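To close the chapter, one final illustration. This time we ask the reader to focus less on the individual chains and more on the assembly as a whole: which components sit near each other, and how the overall shape emerges from the parts.
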Amino acid sequence: MIILGIETSCDETAIAVIEATGRKVRPRVRVLANVVLSQIPLHREFGGVVPNLAKREHQKNLVPALLRALREADLGFKNEDLRNRTRQINPKSKILNLKSLLAREPELLPLFLGKIAPLRAPRIDAIAVTTGPGLEPALWAGVNFSRALAYIWKKPLIPVNHLEGHIYTAMLGSDAIQKKRFHSAELKLPALTLIVSGGHTELVLMRKLGRYKIIGETRDDAAGEAFDKVGKMLGLPYPGGPAIERETQKLKAISYKLKAHFPRPMTNSNDFDFSFSGLKTAVLYFLRDAEKKHSLKELRPLVAAEFQSAVIDVLVSKTIRAAKKYRAKSIILGGGVAANKELRKRLAEDVRSNVPHSTLHLPSRKLTGDNALMIALAAYISGRRKDWQMVRAEANMRLDSGQ
Ligand code: KG4
Ligand code: ZN
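The assembled structure is written out below.
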């Protein structure tokens, strides 16, 4: 099955094409194209993602991203097909329908009419699109685009929960994307996933493939959000996660008389929930005092390392406890924060020593950030087709809402 994936839930405009075959617990995947146009530099000057700006950028980027993906995927188009816009004349009624389908995407509409509408349908079997969770205006740009494509190309549309994408990415293995073909490792059930992204921190239990139970989640900030906020306090650029990880590397070269100790919130609570806002406040108070005697630049590696350790301690200990309780045969890590090397290392060590019979699936660090490959893969696994006219963006979509 050849699937075109579309992802616009936050600040990456992403389009991918995959060819997937085989069993759903062990798909074989060939990556034909994986285009990610990042808006991070644009949002950086605002210190975080601005939803309406993200939407406008998605509208501008979707058509160039699609053309690039089609070219890379080599789906029977020649370069001149992609350049020649007048080859196929669409009936007036079709143009009128497209105008109404894309009425809320004014910057996308002319690009779509000029460059996509004249193309014949590519050799794909389905279109997959992220419908939530995410920033509502950003999600709609991708959803409306996918509906317009499903309409003119007469292809089935598969709505995908963004977090399902983060879950299944790990099946491709941690060295994915070096190569273009993957035989995934078999996913043994029950599987427990720790999702750690900018918007979510959840422990998700999967007893049957595609059926999710959220056994724990954050009560306030997501882990990635905490990294971003502490990054800001430390005067680091957005996003804070990678910047904090880089700061921790400098720690070895500096000797401190000062010590920092931050709390590990909810480590001993009886549930599997998380909370990171207290930790963030602890960092704020520590900096307020310490900055009386030290410069922020001096303090950064110390604070970054202790903060990162605190987050990892909580995430890893709760994941291990949940894996034991639910007798997880697979443990999966997913989401943007899964790029963090220390988190990957600690989780691997603790799985090995505490739940050695569980298999740990770590995603490739090149695929932990938002991308459309993961959306196309999740669509193959769920196979959940829906009439394109019924597909909608749902900013607060949950994995356990039974879509
Ligand atoms: O999954 P993602 O790309 O977007 C959402 O769906 O939210 O996650 C982005 C989050 C950001 O908060 C970013 O700071 C964090 O992932 N992140 C990291 C690292 N790389 C990205 N956090 C810690 N360490 C990293 N290396
Ligand atoms: Zn994400």
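The mean pLDDT is 94. The first strand starts at residue 2 and ends at 7. With these observations in hand, you are ready for the problems at the end of the chapter.
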